[in-house]
Design goal:
This protein is α+β, with helices and mostly antiparallel strands and about 325 residues long. The protein has ten helices and 13 strands. The chain folds into two domains: about 140 residues, 60s Ribosomal Protein L30, Chain: A; about 170 residues, Phosphoribosyl-aminoimidazole Synthetase, Chain A, domain 2 (Alpha-Beta Complex). The chain has a seven-stranded mixed sheet with strand order 8-10-7-11-9-12-13, sandwiched between helices. Strands 1-2-3-6-4-5 form a six-stranded mixed sheet. A hairpin with a 2-residue loop joins strand 12 and strand 13. Helix 4 crosses helix 9. About 45% of the residues are buried.
């Protein structure tokens, strides 16, 4: 026992101190909490109701937009269409009414873009926080036989990654370190990096992949691509092999990560989806025909080891620790 690092609670501690305390009994709940699963699901006859809950902490410039996407992305990773959100806003002392209005505009516009209703919530100024904290709960539905989980990966599946690694982290760093990056790489470079925030939804690919027929999906958040790969394999009781050179990383992400000596594959990456599928090439074609970049980056194995090849060298992928963003 001891003081923990900033970031998500490590999975071994999560299992022991959080998940291990749950005594769930309701038969209607068909998807329950476990490492690697970001959603729960409830049986509603022909449909399954999928729910996910997430907090976002930060300055007002993008926090409302991110808050909508993180929860809707989780629901979409189950192949479900998100339809509603509950939102709690906790604001620090000194907040102006204009700040609340800015965040509500972000929340509303982003929800509208996804055809999602904001159905309720709570707004409060409190001394318990020093920055804005926004907690969103997304609700979605999917036909019962189309529910996808993080734990369904099968031996021999192709592993597909959509878009590029480190997208959200790149955008956050570009916003927070705009002056330094502009001096180093130019204003145009920084604007391109900041614009990555416009592509952090995975709702479209989640729904497409769910209809196509896949075995597992997991949106990539804290811990980056390698963290998401570890969680899918661990939840599924499988191993994996992936290749560093096959994982797409945008030019802007590469340069920012090199400047701050951080790993783009362990950088928060909302906007990417990890998908496992028996027909990987078919899914890539389906996604790309719908305008979504997709790449096969490895395969699921029957072993328990999770292996990353970089050139000829193999390394074991460890459980995710604090996100690389915290180093910056």
């Amino acid at each position: 026992m001891g003081i923990m690092e900033i970031g998500k609670v490590p999975n071994d501690i999560l299992n022991k101190t959080v998940l291990g305390k749950l005594n769930n009994k309701r038969s209607e709940v068909i998807l329950r909490p476990r490492v690697g699963e970001d959603c729960c699901a409830v049986d509603f006859d022909n449909y399954t109701c999928v729910l996910s809950n997430d907090p976002v902490t930060g300055a007002i410039n993008e926090v409302g937009r991110i808050a909508v996407h993180v929860s809707c992305n989780d629901v979409a990773a189950c192949g479900a269409e998100p339809l509603g959100l509950l939102v709690t806003i906790l604001a620090p002392p000194g907040t102006y009414d204009a700040d609340i209005e800015t965040i509500m505009t972000q929340l509303s516009e982003t929800a509208d873009s996804l055809n999602v209703d904001i159905m309720g919530g709570h707004t409060e100024i409190t001394t318990s926080v020093t920055r804005f904290v926004i907690v969103t709960t997304a609700i979605g539905k999917v036909p019962k036989n189309k529910l996808v989980t993080s734990s369904g990966a099968k031996e021999g599946d192709s592993i597909i990654l959509t878009k590029t690694a480190g997208m959200e982290g790149t955008a956050i760093i570009a916003h927070d370190k705009e002056k330094i990056l502009s001096e180093k790489f130019g204003e145009e470079f920084v604007n391109r990096a900041k614009a990555f925030i416009e592509n952090i939804s995975v709702v479209k690919e989640g729904i497409i992949a769910g209809r196509f027929g896949v075995n597992a999906m997991h949106d990539v958040t804290e811990g980056g691509v390698l963290g998401a790969l570890w969680e899918v394999a661990e939840a599924s009781g499988k191993g994996l092999v992936t290749y560093y050179e096959s994982i797409p990383v945008a030019h802007e992400t590469e340069k920012i990560c090199r400047l701050y000596s951080i790993d783009p594959l362990r950088l928060i990456s909302s906007g990417c989806m990890v998908i496992t599928c028996s027909d990987g090439e078919g899914l890539v074609k389906e996604l790309e025909s719908n305008g979504i970049k997709a790449t096969i980056i490895g395969r699921i194995t029957g072993e328990k080891e999770k292996i990353l090849y970089k050139g000829n060298k193999a390394a074991i992928i460890e459980q995710p620790g604090p996100d690389e963003l915290f180093k910056v």
